[in-house]
Design goal:
By secondary structure, the chain is of the alpha/beta class. Helix content is about 25%, strand content about 30%. The strands form 4 sheets. The protein has a 5-stranded parallel β-sheet with strand order 2-1-3-4-5. It has a 5-stranded antiparallel β-sheet with strand order 10-9-8-12-11. About 10% of the residues have low confidence.
Length: about 250
């Protein structure tokens, strides 16, 4: 059962606030705690705590949405609501769970609420640390584990050997699978693909990234290096990812 999500709406445009309030009122599991016209007022509400989710505009006077999120520690879940595409990468580097481009449809809004509920109930993780297979005790791979991943790409189904995958990257409703021989794009969700990948070979380190454990050449608490590229480790994934990376027999 979905839990009640306490949220605030932050946007300097009255019409944008009105649209989000209208959508939120249609969700049984959303409780609007505050509607704020600027980041300063939102910061005051967030300091009181007990906020699960923030719908946050980016371009606002004095303090923009990105600066507000950077000032919060710890931060609630954040969904950016903006008319500008160019801030998407920065937003996901700050662990935003979604990036909604205005004008926002009700259907897209509902998908975001479903995603937020999964984060808040822990269902965005593929498994708990406790049930992760202990590689040091048993390095054999069960025969039942899939060695192939089938990807829908450009109206075709592509058969991909798991050993070729370096990492998966999600951006703008598309996932790019980076492999040792090239890139494959798909519209299949990263969460769906995460469920198809064996969790003793892959780990999600960020809202936008899943890495192949054997392809990680270096890591610390904020990044994992794969194929010569440094990928961010998100705050919401850090504890789980670090446990898996440290236990994996590199």
């Amino acid at each position: 059962m979905d839990r009640t999500i306490r949220c605030i709406i932050v946007d300097d445009e009255p019409l944008a606030r009105k649209v989000l309030v209208k959508y939120a009122d249609q969700m049984d599991n959303l409780e609007i705690v505050a509607v704020c016209p600027n980041a300063v007022e939102a910061f005051c509400h967030l300091q009181k705590g007990n906020i699960d989710l923030v719908f946050l505009d980016i371009k606002m006077p004095k303090i923009n949405g990105l600066e507000l999120l950077e000032s919060l520690n710890p931060a609630p879940l954040v969904v950016f609501t903006t008319a500008y595409r160019e801030f998407a990468i920065k937003a996901f580097e700050l662990d935003a769970i979604d990036y909604l481009l205005k004008p926002i449809s009700l259907g897209r809004f509902m998908k975001t609420i479903t995603k937020a509920n999964k984060f808040l109930t822990g269902h965005h993780l593929q498994g708990t640390i406790e049930n992760y297979p202990q590689q040091k005790e048993n390095t054999s791979i069960p025969k039942t584990e899939p060695e192939l991943l089938y990807i829908k790409s450009q109206r075709k189904t592509v058969k991909l050997d798991l050993s070729e995958i370096l990492y998966l990257e999600s951006l703008n409703d598309k996932v790019t699978i980076h492999t040792s021989t090239g890139e494959i794009q798909t519209t299949q969700r990263i969460g769906y693909l995460e469920e198809k990948l064996p969790n003793n070979k892959f780990v999600r380190i960020h809202r936008s990234f899943i890495v192949a454990l054997e392809k990680v050449s270096a890591f610390n608490t904020i990044m994992a290096e794969v194929g010569g590229k440094e990928l961010p480790i998100g705050r919401n994934y850090r504890s789980h990812a670090m446990t898996i990376l440290q236990d994996y027999p590199h």
